[in-house]
Amino acid sequence: MQLIDHKIIRQTPLPPHTSSLFEYLFAGKGVFVRGVRPGLQVIMPVHLYNMPIRGLSELKPQLKLEPYPIPKDILISIWRQSCLARNDRGLIEILFHIQHRRDGWELRVPEQTQQTWQCQTTQPYHEAIAEFHSHGSGTASFSATDNAEEDGFRLYGIIGRLHTIHPEILIRVGLFGHFLIVPASCVFDLPDFLIDVAVRDQIAYQYYTINHNHHETQL
After folding, report:
1. How distant, in Å, are the alpha carbons of 46, 56, 117, 211, 216 from that of 30?
2. Pseudo-torsion of CA 51, 56, 61, 63, nearest 10°?
3. pLDDT tens digits for 26-40?
4. H helix runs in the chain, sequence order
């Protein structure tokens, strides 16, 4: 099995996934990247063509989470614990891991270092399907630090504006430097009081690639 594979997509359904990291799919309207791990599958754009290529099949972004959705009480617990994460100067960031066990979804707070604008785990976390962290009173948006650190294959989430009655969340799926913003409802049973930035700001399915110091964004 190759680390990275490349496939020309002339017909659907797609052929089996055959790489240990990810594979590039060359389709009629662009280049996509596909990743598969237990509980999570994703196909996201890397580059869309101005003109379609005849003879190749059309692909669209896909996200498959099993089991779906992650229950509402996990997201409410993230919000509550984020509001309680403080030092003598106010709110600090806190990091969460979400993984699936036989009896359902599990929320964990790993050992971590915490500061006002940064948090980082001190433990390995290969089993986590999702990584979530708070931004205190800041907005739910991915920073340059987030882009540099979130280099695995999983869901990534942010909760922010915790000082308001309508906190914000933003969710993306990351595949080793490739990212796709997704509606939070694709992942969670969403509480009514949380504002999904992807829906509000109409940025759902925005995709981009982070490669060292190069940041390419496509809409």
Report:
1. 8, 10, 37, 19, 15
2. -170
3. 999 999 999 999 999
4. 72-84, 144-149, 197-200
Q: Give me the residue label for tokens 């996990």.
A: 74
User: 172 CB contacts (<8 Å, ≥6 apart)?
Assistant: 142, 155, 156, 157, 179, 180, 181, 182
- Look-up: residue for tokens 């630090």? 145
pLDDT tens, position by position, 145-175: 899 889 999 999 999 999 999 999 999 999 9
- Residue 215 is predicted with a pLDDT of 40
Largest alpha-carbon pair distance within the chain?
Answer: 63
Write down the pTM of the prediction: 0.92
Among the four given CATH numbers 3.40.140, 3.30.1660, 3.90.320, 3.40.50, the one describing domain 72-218: 3.40.140
- For 39, the 3-state DSSP assignment is coil
What are the extents of the domains in the chain?
A: 2-65, 72-218
The pair of three-digit structure tokens given for residue 172, joined into one six-digit string: 């993306």
DSSP, res 111: S
The amino acid at residue 101 is R
